[in-house]
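Here is the promised in-class demo. Please do not try to memorize the tokens; focus on the logic of going from shape to residues.
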């Protein structure tokens, strides 16, 4: 969970733990009807 990956939209490295948290925020906004959910896709 501490391993980091480069997040292309943020332009910096984030841990998998932080990446999951960011995805949960996006899902929350989708459920509340604020924004359409677009999942993170890693481009290897």
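The designed amino acids, position by position:
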């Amino acid at each position: 969970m501490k391993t980091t990956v480069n997040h292309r939209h943020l332009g910096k490295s984030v841990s998998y733990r932080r990446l999951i948290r960011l995805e949960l925020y996006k899902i929350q906004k989708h459920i509340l009807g604020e924004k359409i959910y677009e999942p993170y896709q890693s481009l290897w």
